[in-house]
Design brief:
The complex is a heterodimer of chains A (109) and B (112).
Chain A lengths: L3 E3 L4 E4 L4 E7 L6 E7 L5 E7 L4 E3 L2 E6 L4 E6 L8 E8 L5 E3 L3 E6 L1
Parallel strand pairs in A: 2-11
Antiparallel strand pairs in A: 1-3, 3-8, 4-5, 4-9, 6-7, 7-8, 9-10, 9-11
Chain B lengths: L2 E5 L2 E4 L5 E8 L5 E7 L5 E9 L2 E4 L5 E7 L2 E6 L8 E8 L6 E3 L3 E5 L1
The chains are: A mainly beta (109), B mainly beta (112).
Chain lengths: 109, 112
């Protein structure tokens, strides 16, 4: 089993739609969680950290479910500019941040 | 604010040639530094990381090496490139463990 798993997608959604991605992790001792956005041929950019209580930043909401070992990212009112690949990342109990392979989102007009 | 630089942005090298990619971080001290490779359409593969000057941890056995000659400088090298070394090389930094990692703009390497 991979340490961090994501559905590769693509998720094709119309503008204005709400879309959600999940990311599962295998190490129950994992302590920190993040979502990154990566545009084609660019570096990943930090979108948001994921806290135990959940957190929201504008149209984006991230949540952590420790019991089921997954994190989620919800995007409301999707924009064309949200089209990208979304990577989740998990710190285990090592010096390494483990990345998922990403979920591709395509928002169409 | 912190800034991370990588160069060159793109590189085309023949098989068997040497490689040197450089990464520098500004605006912070004693960062953790990381080298990743992302092959086309694939996930991020951690190659090396460093928690201090002269300290390098290698994640994947290969013909690449890394060095950290200064606190905020991280170098990725190879003596002889292979075709399979082609990819998008990303440097990242973090403030210790458990925190966010921030990526440089990357170097796109094509080995011909």
């Amino acid at each position: 089993r991979k340490e961090v798993e994501q559905d590769p997608g693509p998720f094709n959604v119309p503008e204005g739609a709400t879309v959600a991605f999940n990311c599962t992790y295998s190490n129950s001792a994992s302590q920190s969680f993040f979502w990154y956005r990566q545009d084609c041929r660019k570096e990943p950019k930090l979108l948001m950290s994921v806290y135990s209580s959940g957190n929201e930043d504008g149209r984006f909401t991230a949540q952590l479910n420790r019991a089921s070992q997954y994190i989620s990212l919800l995007i409301r009112d999707s924009k064309l500019s949200d089209s990208a690949t979304y990577l989740c990342a998990v710190w285990g109990n090592t010096d390494k941040l483990i990345f998922g392979t990403g979920t591709r989102l395509q928002v169409f007009p | 604010s912190q800034t991370i630089h990588q160069w060159p942005a793109t590189l085309v090298q023949p098989v068997g040639s040497p490689l040197s990619l450089e990464c520098t971080v500004e605006g912070t001290s004693n960062p953790n530094l990381y080298w990743y490779r992302q092959a086309a359409g694939r996930g991020l593969q951690l190659l090396f990381y460093s928690v201090g000057i002269g300290q390098i941890s290698s994640e994947v056995p290969q013909n690449l090496s890394a060095s950290r000659p200064q606190d905020r400088q991280f170098i990725l090298s190879s003596k002889k490139l292979l075709l399979s070394d082609s990819g998008f090389y990303l440097c990242a930094w973090s403030r210790g463990t458990l925190g966010e990692q921030y990526f440089g703009p990357g170097t796109r390497l094509t080995v011909t």
